[in-house]
Hints:
This protein is α/β, with parallel strands linked by helices. The protein has helices at residues 2-10, 32-40, 58-68, 87-97, 171-179, 198-201, 203-224, 238-260, 263-279; strands at 20-26, 47-53, 73-77, 81-82, 103-105, 108-112, 137-138, 146-150, 184-186, 192-196.
Amino acid sequence: MLTEALGSLLEQDYPTERYEIVVVDDGSTDETPGVVEKLAAGRRQPRMRLVRQSPKNQNAARNRGISEATGDLIAFLDDDELAPKEWLSSLVQGAGRHPDAGCLGGPARLQFEGRPPRLCEWCGPGEGSFDMGVGEQDVDEVGGGNMLLRTWAVDGPGLFDETLEGHGDETEWMVRFRRTGGRIVYLPEVAVWHRRGRTDLHLTNRLRKGYAIGRQTARNERVAGQHVSSRHWPTWPRSHVSSLAHLAAIPRLLGHAAKRGCSGGLTKAARALGYAMGGRWRPVHR
């Protein structure tokens, strides 16, 4: 996947002398260094280089990428994604239309490399997709795997929180960025392909991942100070409300899966259970 992700970056229609590729190796034990060295060998433009660090997490890798990059615009792409050839130029054009936006991003569309899961319209295209419609707009967040930052955007809120990991780990930074008055813009034309391999599509693995995502989301939201509304239970800590709401949704989600034959109901139920367990009935306030 890394070879093909980097290949898509090498084939951008943006002038090759005007961008570089920084690959952050967060303590891999596979052939990542060899893959990068082979692709970078003998290449003058675009420049590709590998930086290695002890294993930590994706936010630590993002921070290392920010510190290593030499440009004033930093675009992020995950190694399980593919960038269309117009991706980089579209991001730069979007940044030009919104010079005061410190963070911009676009959709992540699924590319199934096996039999797609059976999903109904209500459950959408599946886990790992991100789409906020066809209109260019100000938003609260974008996906970390298809995101552009201006270097000055981290001056106020600081870097990504390296104590966080898993689903939504980048969202906490966006909450801090918005609190400093920062602007985030969604660019519908700047899409990437998020690849889903055969093992990703097995129901057992999807259920495990759904549960893990729920737990990670709950913890990351606590750190960010986010919560669901507690207006119906004004005397309860907000995390109680959030956890109970997710638990209460599980029977409905299981019923939906049985009635519609939709595996999305099962994965959503696993995610709701993970969220409830990850909440641990503790307040969300810092």
